RNA sequence: GCCCCGGUAGCUCAGUUGGAUAGAGCAACUGCCUUCUAAGCAGUGGGUCCCGGGUUCGAAUCCUGGCCGGGGCACCA
């Protein structure tokens, strides 16, 4: 990657200057910073390193900059190198290098920007994992969008990624869910004396599901002993909810590699394994009738209940067994869990759990995103699954579309709390950035259609010298860096900004440069520009793909 | 009370881990369609980077003390 090569180049220049006596001897800084200048006319890359060296060398920064430029043997992709006050060195990419990128970008196609940052490491991204007690609501949308794009970005960065959904089918909530399902089913068959539990799920979707099951299966569950009926019917209802989640996520183009059942942690022995491991490590304590994980032994603020006094394992027990399964049984190098900020309190105990299992805590990353406030105009929409007052994910997808929803939810950093105004999202749908970006892609398709099958002869990319052409090329060449940034920070919102800027450069180019010329003497230029827009389309499609958005040919 | 995340243009938010004159989109205003899609382009206005103090060549960014908003501190998940 370009910044890395510049660092190496600069390091060599410093050493060379020292060897020749231009600079005094001093210890090389750990890192040579290479950044992007704020203003376009300063070039594409810059280093402020001379300011840092000024003290070590006891010289003026600008003087050091001039020495380094003289001793620099810049990489071939660099066109010009300049110094600037108070001590910057600015680099500009060479025009002929830029135009030479068109062919490799086209050749790379869908894999343009592919990095080897992950070196094939296996990483699991677990996301959404909402309780399977009803349809997915808007609260899960940000989780879904973040998780899927983080996964895609890591793939692009050279990791082998597995997408996983954790089905919480073993908790105490399940019992209530089963009883609710049973009551609604029985009610649908006229048993009005069956009541939904007070803490049960009041939503209309449960009524609907009860009716559907009653219609399809008749009264067969009423004929079973109650406990058996609860289990059988409950399982059926659970499967329906999970299938519904799968369908909703598929509407956003999200497909999982694995739907992991919490229940299997208990039937396949992982729970027993971690209990004996923790016991061996002397991390367990029994008091007040419950079994506790002694997080305080590892610096935690308080101990945590693993097995309740009624003998049932708690949520944390499943978490430990689940992560043992991920790291030890399935041997992932890294695991990323995407959680809402309401789970932030669990972060310390997860690290303590890793330590207790003898695993390096840095292999587990917990992405916490701030919750989304849903609004309709000025009104805040409260979300509660149990009162049934929910806005479902599906409703919003149908209202604003998958692409718009993904773009909006992705475009803010996970740390920022955000408002999602349903009215505004609808109202702005023609003026929103989603269409601006997609239009750039469609616009290129349109140009290519217009060019048709005419043979313009060989392309001479050296004819691409217009500032708008070069600006576009500079942006296209940046994608690998953006992927690097998004992958290393696990921050896919950088993709949205890049995509917008790329689209903007394409639109500017379109204004300034006519692609398909009818003049015979322009054919070499036309061929070159067609190559340019084809390559640009590859980049647009690639970044849209990483964001999980469609790249339409017609709008 | 303690812990986590925010506070940047009228609004919604970026700011590449400490660099140059703090950016973008919406909203407002002014222009541009007879040629590859005007879902586009060009331009204008808009700032106490929440408030003190500190660290250094240099702070929106780091440390510290406040203020405001959100979330969390269960044998719930």
3D architecture notes:
By secondary structure, the protein is of the alpha/beta class. The protein has four domains: 2-93, Arginyl tRNA synthetase N-terminal domain (Gyrase A, domain 2); 122-165 and 257-369, Rossmann fold (3-Layer(aba) Sandwich), CATH 3.40.50; 172-251, no CATH class; 431-546, Isoleucyl-tRNA Synthetase, Domain 1, CATH 1.10.730. The chain contains 21 helices and 14 strands. The protein has helices at 2-19, 49-57, 61-71, 95-99, 102-108, 141-156, 172-188, 204-217, 226-251, 264-267, 270-280, 315-329, 347-356, 393-400, 402-410, 422-427, 433-451, 467-477, 479-489, 493-512, 523-546, and strands at residues 45-47, 78-84, 88-93, 122-126, 160-167, 258-261, 284-287, 290-293, 304-307, 334-340, 364-369, 372-376, 379-381, 418-421. The strands form four sheets. The protein has a five-stranded parallel sheet, with helices on both faces. Strands 1-3-2 form a three-stranded antiparallel sheet. It has a three-stranded antiparallel sheet with strand order 7-8-9. It is globular. The two termini are 35 Å apart. The mean pLDDT is 92. The protein binds one RNA strand of 77 nucleotides through helix 2, strand 8, strand 9, strand 14 and helix 17.
